[in-house]
Every structure is written in C-alpha cells, then in structure tokens.
Amino acid sequence: MEIRKVPFFNYPAVFKTYEEDFLxxxxxxxxxxxxxxxxxxxxxxxxxxxxTGAKFCVGLNNATDAILLGLLAxxxxxxxxxxxxxxxxxxxxxxxxxxxxxxxxxxxxxDHLMDVDQIEKAITKxxxxxxxxxxxxxxxxxxxxxxxxxxxxLKIIEDSAQGLGSKYKGKSAGTFGEAACxxxxxxxxxxxxxxxxxxxxxxxxxYQQVIQLRDHxxxxxTGEIMRFGYNMRMDNLHGAFLxxxxxxxxxxxxxxxxxxxxxxTNLKNVEEIIRPPAPDSHPDHxxxxxxxxIEAKDRDQLKTYLGERGIGSMVQWGxxxxxxxxxxxxxxxxxxxxxxxxRMLLVPLNNTISxxxxxxxxxxxxxxxxxx
Length: 372
Ligand SMILES: *Cc1c(COP(=O)(O)O)cnc(C)c1O
Fold this sequence. Notes:
By secondary structure, the protein is an alpha/beta fold. Helix 7 links the parallel strand 4 and strand 5 (155-159). The protein has 13 helices and 13 strands. The strands form three sheets. A seven-stranded mixed beta sheet has the order 1-9-8-5-4-2-3, sandwiched between helices. A three-stranded antiparallel beta sheet has the order 7-6-11, with no helix packed on it. A three-stranded antiparallel beta sheet has the order 10-12-13.
C-alpha cells in the first residue's frame, strides 16, 4: 500500500476552509470596534439557545469555566462531593475543584460514557452534584441519570463540551440538568479560532447569576457591581465567527455521521476492534461523533503501525483517566475504566477527512491484524 499522510486533526484547515469569510468577519468586527460584549456575541447566544432548545445561553471564554460558573450558580458549597466520569478531560474535575467541590470519579460503561449503574455506589451524605460528560458526541442515558439524581437530591451539571447537537430521546445534550457547558475549542465540532465556550441553562436564576459572574459581578443594565465576579466573557469576535459557523453546523454533523458510517462499514468484520455505536444503531441516541473511539487488541502496536503509515491517532487525555493522574491525588481504583484505557484509540474523524482517507485507515487496521 502506498503511504499517505492522514493527520489526526488538521488545525490550519479550521481557518483555511472559510478563510475569506473569516477575513470579512474580522474586518467587519474590527471596523465597528465591536470587541467586548457586543451584538455578535448576543446574537450567537440567542442562536445557540434556539439550536439546542435551551432557554438561556451565556457566551464565555471557554467550557471549563462554564462548568465552574454553572456549579457556583447552582449553589455548590465548600466540601460538596461531585460525581464525574473518570473518562473525561481533567477540566471537568478541575472546575469541580475550583468551585470548592470534591471531585469523585465514577466508572465509564461499555459505551465509554458515565456508567449510570455505578452512580449510586459512589453516593455519600456529602454528594450534591453529578457532572456527566456527553463524551465523543454522544449523550448519556439521561432519563436513568435524572431518576437517580432525583432520588438522592443531586443536581446535574452537564459537561457537554463534546456534545453540541447530540440528542437523547430527541432532547439535546446540554438541556437536561441545571446547566451545561459547550466548548468551541478549535478541534471541537463547532470550533472557533481560539478559546471560547458557552453555558446553557433552563433556569433563569442561574442565568442571571452567570451573566454577572462572567463580567466582574456587574448588572448589565445598571453597571452596578452586585457581587464579586470574574472576567470570563466570550470575545465578541468569536461570537461573530461562531454565528457564521453555526449556520453550517447541521452539515458538519451530517458529514461526521457519514464518516462514522464509513468506519462502521469497513471495520465491522474486524474482530479485534470494538467500534462505537453506529449512527442510528439505537433509536434513543443521536450522536454527532466529536470523536471516533475504538477499542483495539494490541492497541499500542496498532498505534505505532498506523503512525508508520502516516496515520495520526491518539489515546484521549494523554492516555489516562482523571483518577490515574498521580498529581491530582484522587485515590480511587476503577478497574473497568482502567482496562478501557489500555484498549482505547481515537482514529481520525474530523470536518475535512475524505472517505478515501477513512478507507485507507481501515485498510491499514486490517493489514495490521492480518500480518500475524
Ligand atoms: C474540550 C473539553 C473541555 C474543555 O473545554 P474548553 O473550552 O477547552 O475549556 C471540557 N470537557 C471535555 C469533555 C472536553 O472535551
């Protein structure tokens, strides 16, 4: 097979795909001097709320701080225990920590998302919140989770950084709990040219608090300082870029699901691989494939083999579940998740990859297992 170059993610393409449009938007915003808390950001907030079906949206600097502000506005107290799935970005746990909470990791399940059946085991008298991650563009079984949360009086804050447009039983990720974050980091499905994020909520009190918390505690109408706050505002320029990109988002989702289907077709007979659920394989789930995370026999050798053939792949989060980072001092053992981390691999699924490139990747996966 001829060697090709298929990077895991093409960062310049985030800009180049819409270069002319970005330059036009940059000039427009620049000539208006509309840099901070301007109309473009407000328009985007309205558009994103409408897109997800959330009542309110607040534009923020990133998704990590959206989790932090969501927890603060939902009333977290110092020392509250907060359950999260250990197969997530450390940002989830970091936000819990800086909100004053104690992050308590929970196992991932077979679909790599928080295992709802493991939640109750982790609950103590101090448990007050659960922060599920809508990982890889898939939404957790939220009806079960909501039932468990209700039973134990827990509030849900969704880490939906990877979940935009994903649905469970027809309802969008980011609209199930008290609040949720969405990330517009460049490599996310809806990625801008830098850091940016948003908080979604259906709760007007949380909305009003986060509006103040992101802007030095200021009341936006009077300018009066109502409380201590942060500077966590979304740059208006990102609001303008994101308004433009959101109009194209349905086609991004459709294309990503198409790519997942090409993987599904080409890998389904490879018995050494466990594939993520295929698009439309379950009526309750609508997945947007932020990532394509397989489980692979001899994962490390496969990764090296693919690398030698020009194919970029990754183990998510640098190869460890959150509770496995010794520096965080979370003393838990989660055997199912730890085993997943010996087997999981992300193969390229992004907005610019071609079917032909996916076929090339699958052919190489097959030749790896055939050669022994
Ligand atoms: C990207 C990501 C975040 C952090 O988003 P930022 O916008 O970079 O702060 C948090 N959680 C998950 C699951 C993510 O993938």
